[in-house]
Design goal:
The protein is 44% helix and 0% strand. The protein has 118 residues and is mainly α.
């Protein structure tokens, strides 16, 4: 894709600028849009629990016996995670499966996420 395909007014970042973590990237939402806000909330809750254990995604995925790339997608809300994998995640975190989920009130207020949310 050439530069001619970029939206008008979009300014490319300075390649000499200091690196910023993905979470601070102002383009993050444009680059990987989340299709389902409820899955994004679930992933965020799971990430918080993993970070409390001071584990990297790679360390945790190995502990949970889940593919690292798949697990990363779960945390980013890109995967409609299977029940068996929720069980593996909960076991590896030492919590009940229900503790992986954000509060129901947060899920109720999540924006609809497109065609895969029915």
């Amino acid at each position: 894709m050439g530069l001619g395909c970029m939206p008008r007014g979009l300014v490319l970042p300075d390649v000499n600028a200091p690196h910023k973590p993905w979470i601070e990237n102002p383009w993050a939402d444009m680059l990987l849009p989340v299709k389902n806000q409820k899955l994004a909330l679930l992933g965020k809750a799971i990430r918080r629990l993993r970070e409390e254990k001071k584990l990297s995604q790679e360390e945790f995925a190995g502990l949970a016996d889940i593919d690292r790339a798949y697990y990363g997608g779960v945390e980013r809300g890109e995967r409609n995670v299977a029940a068996i994998n929720l069980i593996k995640i909960a076991e590896a975190l030492g919590v009940e499966v229900g503790n992986l989920f954000p509060p129901l009130s947060a899920l109720r207020h999540a924006e609809p996420g497109g065609p895969d949310e029915r």
